[in-house]
Amino acid sequence: MLSEQTRQALPLNGIGARPPHDTIARAADALHTSRIRELLPITAIFLALVLVPVVSLFLGHTYYLDLVSRAMILGLAAMGLNLILGYGGMVSFGHALYLGIGAYAVGMLSTHGVESALTQLAVAIAVGTIVSYLIGYICLKVDGMGFIMITLAFAQMFYYLAISLKQYGGDDGLPIAARSTLPGMDLENPYQFYLLVLAILAAAAYLLYRLVHSRFGTVIRGCKQNTRRMYALGFPASRYKLFAYVISAQISVLAGVLLANLALFAAPSYMSWTLSGDLILMCVLGGLGTLLGPLIGAIAFVGLEEFLSTMPIDLGNATELITTHWLGFFGVFIVLVVLFLRRGLYGSFTAKGARHD
């Protein structure tokens, strides 16, 4: 016999009873509302990016078009890093390595007369997959500071390897004569190139959204909280984390291919630890563990860097001070964001009244 207290704690229709229909309806409405709140800022951001070519046409030059293209490409790389950093808790201090692999794939193949974007991308992805799998397999044997230092060490190894390739420019970098060729598009046209970058960014955002909200994404987020518990639940956590690391690297490789075509240049500095640090900073500025936080962080990073270093507003004697020591003012901005916007620019905005990933 059940006690009176136990009977009161059970549903009226028994232990196996389903929740009332209105409870299910309220839960469905709450989920629908949450998804709308999540998609509204995403839609607004992409609409703003679509309007950039219109503004560029109105101004009569492509300066801001190229600037936003660079921000989107770095944002794409940061979104790839955010998959393992923001959702998986794996701090990679060598992710710029994969940007360099993508850029040098374009530069080296162009030097040998291979200008097809599809061929260059296929080679970059193939090399990136092999390298990221081997590095990820080794790095994931440890975690914490060990993981950080090993990813940094591998990136520096490839950095000095690029410097040693004198036939491909060495320390001076590798100039690229022309942008890659793509059937149906003229990538020499800055407007068409911008739309291509925007389309790839949108596709990557959609795939990452689906990935993060899938069972795979749930396991990755679970590994961030407690890897041992995921093992106890029967999930091969190391395999999931390795797969996430490879996917993250491939997104950065794709960004490297686009960056080489934008700058018409491939340099060892693309693999340097400083650029890896910049990618981490973009994730933190925008918001770790958010879909478009790294993109917003990249836009803020590139935009503020350009604004402070050129200072288009006349502030008298302060103008020269800001342009000369713009890195100091940039650092103050970062400190303020970290102190007062713990979830980043995008994360703090979307967290109001919505679930945070």
Structural class: mainly alpha
**Helix segment tally:** 15
Low-pLDDT regions: 5-17, 353-357
Q: What is the total domain count?
A: 1
How many strand units? 2
| CATH architecture designation | Orthogonal Bundle
Radius of gyration, CA atoms, in whole angstroms: 23 Å
In spatial order, strands of the major sheet run 1-2
The shape is globular
Q: In the CATH hierarchy, what is the class?
A: Mainly Alpha
Helix and strand run: HHHHHHEHHHHEHHHHH
* N→C terminal distance: 44 Å
Provide structural commentary.
It is globular and about 60 Å long. It has helices at 4-9, 21-59, 63-85, 96-111, 117-139, 145-164, 190-212, 215-225, 227-232, 237-263, 273-286, 293-310, 317-324, 326-340, 344-350, and strands spanning 174-175, 265-266. Residues 5-17 and 353-357 have low confidence and may be disordered. Helix 12 (293-310) runs antiparallel to helix 14 (326-340). It has 15 helices and 2 strands. Helices cover 72% and strands 1% of the residues. A two-stranded antiparallel sheet has the order 1-2. The protein has a single domain (38-350), classed as ABC transporter involved in vitamin B12 uptake, BtuC, CATH 1.10.3470. It has 357 residues and is mainly α. One of its GO terms (cellular component) is plasma membrane. This is Branched-chain amino acid transport system permease protein. It holds the Pfam family BPD_transp_2. It is a multi-pass membrane protein. One of its GO terms (molecular function) is branched-chain amino acid transmembrane transporter activity.
List the helices and strands and how they pair.
Layout (H helix, E strand, L loop, with lengths): L3 H6 L11 H39 L3 H23 L10 H16 L5 H23 L5 H20 L9 E2 L14 H23 L2 H11 L1 H6 L4 H27 L1 E2 L6 H14 L6 H18 L6 H8 L1 H15 L3 H7 L7
